[in-house]
Task: inverse folding
C-alpha cells in the first residue's frame, strides 16, 4: 500500500471500532455501566472514559483538573496514574452524559482525521504521560486502532455481546501484538539462546509464527515453520488476545515441548503497558 492508503486503512479501522463501541453502549441501562471488565480495575464506564480521554487529548483538549485517590490498587505506576486521572474524573457521570460525550468526541475526532494535513511519516506527539514521545503519524493511527479495538473487545466480553473478532482493526491488532512477542519470549520469559517457540493461533484470525532466540539473546519472529521447536503453544485467537493484553489466564492453551519454559512464557505473555 502507498503511505496514503496505509493512513486511510488505519483511519477506517479505528472508525469501525470506535463506532461499534458507541453502538454497544448507546442503550445500556444505568447499572450496566458499572459492570466489571477484564481490564484490571475498570468498569464499562471506565473503558469508555479512557477512549474518550485519549481521543480528546489528541484533539488538543486540556486534561481535566482532578485529584486522583491514592488507594486505587490497580494504579501501580506514574503511567497508570496518568491514564487513570480522566477515567476517575468521569466515574460520577451518568449514562446519558457518557454516551453524549462519546458521540461528540467521535464526531470531532473523525472530522479532524478527515481534514488532517500530516504526512504518513510526520512526527506526532503520542500523549502518554511519562511515556510521551514523537511517533510517525501512521504509527499513531495504528496504535489508536489497536487500543480502541482491544477495549471494544473488553466491552463485548463484559456485556456478552461478541463480535468484530476478525474486523480490520483485529488484523492490525494481530500485527501490533506479534511485534512484541519476541521480547516476551526472549527477555520477559528468559528463554535461552537457541530457543525456538511456535505459536499456532486458530479461529477468526489464524496464523502460525516462530520465535527464535539468537546467540545474543534477542528474539525474532517470522512465518517460517520450525519442525522441532522447543515449545509449541496452540490457542484460539481470543485467548491469544486476552493473554497478550494482560486479561488474565483464559484457556484453553495446548502446550507441546518444554512445559517449564511454556509456563514462564505464558506467565509473562502480556505485552501491553
Result:
Amino acid at each position: 500500500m502507498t503511505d496514503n492508503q496505509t493512513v486511510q486503512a488505519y483511519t477506517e479501522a479505528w472508525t469501525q471500532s470506535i463506532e461499534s463501541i458507541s453502538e454497544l453502549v448507546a442503550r445500556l441501562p444505568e447499572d450496566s455501566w458499572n459492570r466489571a471488565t477484564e481490564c484490571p480495575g475498570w468498569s464499562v464506564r471506565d473503558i469508555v472514559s479512557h477512549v474518550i480521554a485519549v481521543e480528546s487529548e489528541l484533539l488538543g483538549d486540556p486534561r481535566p483538573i482532578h485529584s486522583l485517590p491514592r488507594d486505587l490498587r490497580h494504579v501501580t505506576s506514574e503511567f497508570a496514574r496518568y491514564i487513570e486521572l480522566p477515567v476517575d474524573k468521569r466515574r460520577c457521570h451518568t449514562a446519558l452524559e457518557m454516551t453524549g460525550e462519546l458521540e461528540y468526541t467521535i464526531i470531532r475526532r473523525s472530522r479532524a482525521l478527515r481534514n488532517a494535513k500530516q504526512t504518513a511519516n510526520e512526527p506526532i506527539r503520542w500523549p502518554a504521560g511519562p511515556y510521551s514521545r514523537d511517533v510517525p503519524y501512521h504509527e499513531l493511527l495504528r496504535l489508536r486502532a489497536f487500543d480502541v479495538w482491544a477495549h471494544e473487545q473488553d466491552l463485548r466480553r463484559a456485556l456478552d455481546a461478541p463480535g468484530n473478532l476478525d474486523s480490520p482493526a483485529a488484523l492490525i491488532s494481530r500485527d501490533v501484538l506479534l511485534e512484541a512477542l519476541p521480547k516476551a519470549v526472549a527477555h520477559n520469559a528468559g528463554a535461552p539462546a537457541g530457543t525456538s517457540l511456535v505459536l499456532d493461533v486458530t479461529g477468526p484470525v489464524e496464523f502460525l509464527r516462530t520465535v527464535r532466540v539468537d546467540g545474543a539473546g534477542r528474539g525474532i519472529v517470522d512465518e517460517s515453520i520450525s519442525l522441532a521447536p522447543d515449545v509449541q503453544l496452540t490457542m484460539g485467537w481470543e485467548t491469544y488476545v486476552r493473554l497478550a493484553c494482560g486479561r488474565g489466564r483464559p484457556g484453553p492453551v495446548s502446550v507441546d515441548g518444554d512445559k517449564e519454559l511454556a509456563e514462564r512464557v505464558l506467565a509473562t505473555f502480556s505485552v501491553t503497558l
